[in-house]
Amino acid sequence: MVGPRPPSQRPESASSDGAPAAVTLVESQNDRFVQEAERLLQACRESHGTTTAHPSGPAAAPERKRLDKAYKRLREAVDGFLPHFHQVRERAARLADHYPGLTTEEYRRAAVSLAILGEWHAGDAAPAPRAADEAIDHPAGVAAAVLASIARDGFLRLAFFVCPPTDYRRLGTAEPERYLLTHLNGSVLSRQVRRLRDLFRGLEAADIPTRVWAVVADTDEDDYLWRFLPQPRPLDEDALTERRRLLLAGAHRYLTEQRAAPKDGRPQPRVLPENMLHVTNLSAASWSPLSAAVHQRVLREPDRYFDAEDWRAEIETMRRLWRPGSYYEALPEPDETVMREILRHKFAAYAQQGVLLAEQQPWLVLIQTERPPELRTKMLNIGWAEQTDGSLPAVNFFGPGE
C-alpha cells in the first residue's frame, strides 16, 4: 500500500537542527514526562531514606515496608516504561522521515498504535533486526495504513471477521433455518475474546481513537457449501434472513455487553465499548462489478493465484472441520474431487470479500482471526490488491503453525 499523501497545507517547519518540528516536539514532550517520573522517583527515594534514618515508634517498621513497596513498584513502572518510550519516539521520528507534513499528535498516535499492534501480533514473535524502513512497518503494510487512517479520519480503523455459530443437525428438522444460531455463547468468537479484549483495551488505555468493523461471515453455505453438499430440505429465505438479522444484533450485544471486572467489580464491556464498534454481515453486502469480476477470475484460474502448498494447507484445514465435535461434523464429508470444487469457490469468495474490504474501508488494518493466517490473508489480498496498489495490512491472532 502506498503511504498516506498528507495535504500540502499542513506541513510543519523543520527544527534548527534539520529534524522535522513534529518529531522535535514529540521528543521534548515525552522527555518532560520521563523527567517528571524520575523526579517523583527521587522524591520517593528521599522520603524512604528519611524514614529509614529516623525511625520513630512502633509504626516505623510498617511505614518503611510500605515505602519500600511503593518505591519498588514505581521503579519497576519507570524501568518498564522507558524501553517503550524510546521505541515510540524512534518510530515517530521514522514515520516523520517517511511521511512528512503531518502533526505531532498524528505521529505520536500512529507510533503508539504501531507499538501496540506489533506487540499483539502473533506472527514472527521474535523477528530479526530489520532495515530502518522496515522497522516502522512490521507487520508489512501496517504503518502506512495506520498513519493514513489517523491523518485522514482522526482514528485507527480495524476490522475482523466473525465466524457465525451453527448447528447443522437442525437442517433435518421442521425449521432447518435454525441451523444458524443467533447467540455467540460457545462460538469460535467466544474463544477469542480475551486476546481481542486485550488489544482493544490497550488502544483505549493509550488514548488511541479506534473504530472496529466486525464482519459476520454468514454466507459460507451459499458461497461454497450448498453448491456441492446435499441440503436436507429447501430453506425459507425469509426465515433465514430473519435469523441473520438476529445474529447481527446478537454479535453486537455479545461484543459490547457490560460485565463486572474480576478485580473491582466495575462494569466493563466483554470485548470493546459500543462507540468503537460497527457490526455488519456479508449477506447484506452490496457487491460491485469489480468484486464480481474478481470472483469469476479466481473461479476460472485458481492455480494462477494459489500454489500446491496453498491447496494442501486448505484441504487439511477443511478436513479438520469434519472431525468429531468440530464445525462441520453433522454435514456429509466430501470426497477429494468435491473438496477441491468447494475450495475453488471458497478461494473466489474470499477474493471477492477482499474487494469489499478495500472499497468500504481502504485504510483499515485487518485483525486476522482465522487459520492458517497467512493463507487467509492471501485469499483476501487477491481482491484487496485489485482495488489498491498494495497488500492487505494485517496483524495475526494466531502464530505460525498454531
List the helices and strands and how they pair.
Layout: H1 21-53, H2 60-98, H3 104-120, H4 132-135, H5 142-153, E1 156-162, H6 193-205, E2 210-216, H7 220-225, H8 237-256, E3 258-260, E4 267-269, E5 277-281, H9 289-300, H10 308-320, H11 336-360, E6 365-368, H12 373-387, E7 394-396
Parallel strand pairs: 1-2, 1-6, 2-5, 6-7
Antiparallel strand pairs: 3-4
Structure notes:
- This protein is an alpha/beta fold and about 400 residues long.
- Helices cover about 50% and strands about 10% of the residues.
- It has twelve helices and seven strands.
- The chain has helices at about 20-55, 60-100, 105-120, 130-135, 140-155, 195-205, 220-225, 235-255, 290-300, 310-320, 335-360, 375-385; strands at about 155-160, 210-215, 260, 265-270, 275-280, 365-370, 395.
- The strands form two sheets. It has a five-stranded parallel β-sheet with strand order 5-2-1-6-7, with helices on both faces. The protein has a two-stranded antiparallel ribbon with strand order 3-4.
- Helix 6 links the parallel strand 1 and strand 2.
- Helix 1 packs antiparallel against helix 2 (about 60-100) and helix 1 (about 20-55) packs across helix 3.
- The model is unreliable at about 1-30 and about 125-135 (pLDDT under 50).
